[in-house]
Batch of 2 targets.
Target 1
Amino acid sequence: MINELTRDSFFNGALHIKQQCYGYRFSIDAILLAFYAGLRARCVVLDLGTGCGVIPLILAYRNPELRIYGIEIQKDLAEIASGNVIENNMQERIRVLCADMKAITPEMIGTPIDTVISNPPYRKICSGRMNPDSQKAIARHEIKAKLSDVTETAKRMLTISGRFIVIYPAERAADLLTQMRQSQLEPKFLRPIHSLPDSEAKLILAEGIRGGQPGMKIAPPLMIYQKPGDYSTEVRNMFMP
């Protein structure tokens, strides 16, 4: 049953994405990250923890000039991502590698990386209820990769002045910014993300520059919903072709 797939379409049917019905499924987080990264990404992009490939697919649709590499440690998800790339005829622009991010090297990619993006596991192993579904647990908890693994991989793979772009829980903002600086990914941009105008920030979008100088801008909040169940105009525009 876990291998049953659903098929979602984006941009008025221009993009089709399959994902497991009962396993890990992407959420609005991936859409927000893909939209922001698409505005900032340079020529060659590395997506750490690509899942079903949703972020590379959106990036490639929005910017046909990009070349994107997706890293996914879970074999079943990597296979789905590769299938999505083929179904959308993006083999020339997207390559999916089933690998542990901690083991990848620049030589394995074979080209300089300008931008690293990630929607990494949010929770420490000891925090929150661990999902009994191993696929969901690995995607949500730091089982296969800790935050430091993500930032150190970004440091290792990026060119000097390359961008690291990430979405992460607001409650762990201090952890993220501290780890980014320790990995020489100087925080340069932060945007809080709220579910509703009167709610606390749940997520943050952050960007760092490898070897950058200190100095960070904090953008106005991004509201996901203008009222319960009704996306804000900004988020609705992210789904437009």
Target 2
Amino acid sequence: MEAMVTEREKVREKLIEEHLPLVSRIALKLKQRLPNSVELEDLLGYGYIGLMDAVSKYDPEKSESFSRFAEIKIRGAMLDYLRSLDMLPRHKRKMAKELDSAWDELSAELGREPTVEELSEKLNMEDDEIVDILRYSANSQLVSLTDPIIEGADDYTLLSVLGDDKDPPKFLEENEFFNELVEAIEALPEREKLVLSLYYDEGFTFKEIGRILDVSEARVCQIHWRAIRRLREYLKKRGYEVAS
């Protein structure tokens, strides 16, 4: 009996050791999208907890591979930590709502989407402040975008749908919200879909995406913000509760 316990401990230790780099990769990719107030060390710490949880709960008969199971548990532990934080301070949340209203007003007046400069003038703010609000707003939406579409289906989130080229399982195909979500994403302009894919699926920063698209970082923030806003509006019109 003691030998069996020792053998299980060795297997456990080996799995943890082999998958420590996975914790680092997930934490580093996630950190790129978060405010400086979120420490990498905290993400790593919660990721290690997720890895140990994965080792304890893994059932090879229910999950296709330990690596995939561990990835879900690690990311989930980090996101649980982020959910416990206030990702958007109250004053920035207020400014985000003012920006939202100003965007609508200017769009109606101009017959097109306003520029950062036009929004700055409308709100009597500096360009950098507008970009800062857009960035904070993007960060605050990260957690809701990584919540499972359906309870119990941790693999399938809005972000996975944005970048996944694999066919979803049958139970997702038959889910009404999933189909509405896919429609909402497909209805986005190509540039907005590209920015979302580069940011969430590929892990590029706004600055790096700006270089790829040959536009400013501010413009990328604006495109991203508008894409998320379109998705929220699309789904709300169909009666779904969507976080703002």
